[in-house]
Amino acid sequence: MRISVSKLHASAFAGAIAVTYAALSAPAGAQQPMVIASQAEWSQGYDAAPRIRVQRSFMPTVSQEAIVGTEQAIAHYREIAARGGWGQVSSNQRLRMGAKGPGVVALRERLILSGDLEPSAGNSPVFDTYVEAAVKRFQARHGLNATGVVNGPTVSALNVPVDTRLRQLEINLVRLRALSGDLGERYVIVNIPAALVETVEGGQVVSRHAAGVGKIDRQSPIMNAKITEINFNPFWTVPASIIRKDLIPKMRQDPTYLSDNKIRVYNSQGQEVPPQSINWNSDEATRYMFRQDPGADLNSMGFVRINIPNPHGVYMHDTPAKGIFGDDFRFVSSGCVRVQNVRDYITWLLKETSGWDRAAIDQAIASGERIDARLARPVNVYWTYITAWASPDGIVQFRDDVYNRDGLGVQNVMAAAQAEETEPVN
């Protein structure tokens, strides 16, 4: 897998999160000032580019409001399908501000049908600020970085047929209804296809965090559990599956890999074993325990591990690889969930636990010592799989069915995103 981290950073993704979840509840015509260029016809702002601004949404992905919104979206998409749906957008050119031609006309028509562009914007062949704002809005609704440029992943999302989108909504309405019971006063939602973590309190979202979740061949499980404990500056004990799939091949390529990454080897008696004493051309290594020293610079869990007792052996944690949070494609782990802005996240988790305010959390991390903080009251956490949902104000969200649980083949956006990336992530 190859992911570009030089162009997409966590700060940029924070902007995309703001557009996707905070900005998408306002109407398409909401106003916002902008800097206007004057060199060409297509650069003039008119009153169009302001359409991106929308108000912050506090609606949880899993909520009664989401059920109502999704029911309404299903009715609306049935109407679109009955009218013949939408056409395909050509993938032969990368459309952006200033482009002209029939491809822009087709793009306008597509964006009007999905409600991202007002019909009053017309059918001009010029890619102007109206179209750019509509493309950003569309990208945000589909979990893509809102660049305003119609790239491969955006074309793939645009070209998913309306019948498929309708079926996605119907499938996910069943999932939302299954989670419609009492989730608790304070709880966490991990939406795996969205690679997103929500903290919810009093029926409203307190914070949202980009996440890194399980790869397609190492999927994060669907489960309900409780967060019970925070480990500061944790050791990382390498799971057996990673020893087989990752450590053994890496040691065959580079005999210094373990020492370079501060990973120690222990036998069944708890005695440290030199890596060079192991036959790396066999499966002998699977009989040992591998433990990585604390330290956010290399330790795979970063500064923090969030314990969630469960039969799958997974948990949530920090990561030294912060660059992943700026990527569209964040299916990068072996099943655990990596959390962006983890200090804010655990501050909320520990808010009811005496002696663990933000200052105490920062001090524990800075100490470099292994410290455990047990939550005074465990917090419910739900690892879910929601690829389509909507809010009652008409904002409809879609995500790729990365694990093919919908069975509709909506994985082409992800494939297009991967095809466009060029640089490896560590």
User: Helices and strands, in N-to-C order?
Assistant: HHHHHHEEEEEHHEEEEEEEHHEEEH
How much of the sequence is in beta strands? 15-25%
Number of strands: 15
Instruction: Give me the side-by-side strand order of the main sheet.
Output: 1-2-3-12-10-9-4-13
Q: What is the CATH domain class of the domain at 173-384?
A: Mainly Beta
Contiguous runs where pLDDT drops below 50 for at least 5 residues: 1-55, 419-426
Query: Which fold name is given in CATH as the topology of the domain at 173-384?
Result: L,D-transpeptidase catalytic domain-like
Number of helices: 11
CATH homologous superfamily assignment of the domain at 173-384: L,D-transpeptidase catalytic domain-like
What is the structural class? Answer: alpha+beta
Oligomer: single chain
Provide mean pLDDT, rounded: 82
Characterize the overall form.
Answer: globular
Please summarize the sheet with the most strands: 8 strands, mixed, barrel
Helix content: 25-40%
How far the N terminus sits from the C terminus, by CA atoms, comes to: 10 Å
